[in-house]
């Protein structure tokens, strides 16, 4: 990252620069570094979980601590790692992709980021308070999280409020940027697909984060101010919590996957040397998935007790989601068809994403079949399913995006050899980790248990082996990226990739501190 | 045919890679749906991965491929929207039928209310007026790794649910504290236990046997330690069991196992009446002194209800779970101990046991904790320490 502005000297000067920065590239970098730090912390927690489950019996954690670790693993991965990393991509790439000088509200942008470290300091501090950290799972189901929750649940509620504000502000910023700051001549339908995916994601965030904020506030008042939203004894309903949570929770998982679709839709055409197939239908598919995400939430609650007609409705809507999702997969394959493919690391990760996400999507279709869901619900089958979507899906797409854009950000190529090693190790280990979980779930292993019957032993050992391999592979990634940032790689040109299309490749590498102070001309595309 | 295989349905259904086919009409239809959607998924995956494989082989730049520049193909896009939709409709019809059948609660023969509580199940036979608690029976020493783990480690209970085969049994599932979920894979039954709400399911078991499951909704610290065991026996054996159950002399597990075995073999002998172990147990009940009786019963109850927090050593896990050894409440006047056990301690993990255990059981377990770990040492703790607590003592406090 080059800095045309003379930055103040000394350590204080540096701190000042990063704390007060309103530059979208600086803030993007902060998001990415924060997100990946959280990824390593939450990843360490997942290794604790896997070490505990390597064989029957108590290995590492007692049951109470185990529940805290699974809860914090989930929350940290979703709110601390995946969402900030995706926001980092948005900050770096959206202004570059649409020819804007910066985000629409640079100061707001600074605040959206700086809320995060404080929110997570509060959330992480719960690991050290009396009574232990939050232990109700990331879904925080009442009444386990309310009347039966530890005192630390209040810290988490405050933390979630801060995260919510951060997300909503970032989403407003992104929408304002995309609607107002596009370079002249770039109509909405001409907007790059990554920007489109974030436009839809931002609307989802604005729609559902307030619901989560409301829900945790109801938890807070149930816990301390004598209300009974979720308490049967006072006329409330624990199922209300689940409905509210999943009204947020289901769009939330699409918040985590739609930007991944955007990243992949940028990378596949570049390395196929061919325009994205069915661009318009790709955009409509994203919108369609987003709209459907609001009417499928109760499929998380098929076993919780609902009217038959309600179940049938949610089963049908959930099955429908697979149609636009299928369109996306078919279009990526059609984009590669009759292309001239090369397999650099970003492309490898993109292909890995498409294959693995297809598997995760198909198990999702199985889960949509409500009667069968009675057997799958809350078992390791579900754990396998969503880790295929979020680890083998979103996370692989993030690696694809990092390898794709890091030469533009730093001005240097990463080590291709280490990148490919990282890819193959990750792909193999992700399957060793999560594929056996499907078998475990079908054979009857419930999720979130610290110990299990003897018949589940073999597959669990495989899962643990895969998890540690996956963890090791990420160290290679970290090393590769640190070396790239230190300028150890080969110098990159502005174009970076032979066939890359889009405004971000028209500026030099590394991208100057201020870009597009005058709006760029866009090539007229048919 | 293969009787031994029937005796262990888990082994018979032991495809380690797949869902059990189960022993009820619902579980069969679920299995059918599962396999149907699985094959559809395999087909879709084969098409996608096949196409990708072909592309990676044919259209590599290193093989001299030159990129075509087409951008879309409307007919193709319509095709791959319509065909998946048709497949979904084909899938939705049988799924809806099964769903409707699952919710058909008409003409049930037996109604059993299942209450989830931290961390045990309570079974109430609504038509028979009997009820009991079902706890994990794996010894604590196996959990802690001091003893080798048994075959049914974490999947065994002290009092299994007993139901007759070929009868439509309705389960009414609820909870008295947090969410739980009652799941027996072989029945295709999983229902969340929600406080304040009753969810229903039914099962008509086709084959006698022992069927096992687990709680499947995170319900706190010991979520992984509340298994479910169901014995399915013939109607005749079921009624025999009911008789014993009503006389407050629950059958030991060995007899129950015999019953299942017998149900499978379909030849009834008067085995239960003459069984040695029942005889010895009923004898044991009448002979011993009051103290031995209370202590023996207390020693059985303590590991199931108390040792989870207070540990077998009575040392607890301070500060969350207080030690019983040398505790002022346990070594002080017995009324204090009784009151604490009956009503719990508000704002702590100590729950109220007045509705969980019977007065006999309460008397036994309170005697046990006041007599164990040197708590009865009157030189150390004063004259109020130790002593015997009778059901009568407990009853006085119950009414108060």
Describe this structure in words.
The complex is a heterodimer of chains A (526) and B (400). Chain A has 526 residues and is mainly alpha-helical. Helices cover 67% and strands 0% of the residues of chain A. Chain A is built from 14 helices and no strands. The longest helix of chain A is centred in the N-terminal third of the chain and has 36 residues. The model of chain A has no long low-confidence stretch (mean pLDDT 93). Chain B folds into three domains: 78 residues, Orthogonal Bundle (Helix Hairpins); 174 residues, Cupredoxins -  blue copper proteins (Immunoglobulin-like), CATH 2.60.40; 110 residues, Cytochrome c-like domain (Cytochrome Bc1 Complex, Chain D, domain 2, Orthogonal Bundle). Chain B is built from 16 helices and ten strands. In chain B, the strands form two sheets. Chain B has a five-stranded mixed beta sheet with strand order 3-2-1-5-8. Classes of the chains: A mainly alpha (526), B alpha+beta (400). At the A-B interface, α3, α7, α8, α9 and α10 of A face α3, α4, β7 and β9 of B.
Brief descriptors of the model:
heterodimer, A: 526 residues, mainly alpha, Cytochrome C Oxidase, Chain A, globular, B: 400 residues, alpha+beta, Helix Hairpins, Immunoglobulin-like, Cytochrome Bc1 Complex, Chain D, domain 2, 5-stranded mixed β-sheet, 16 helices, elongated, disordered N terminus
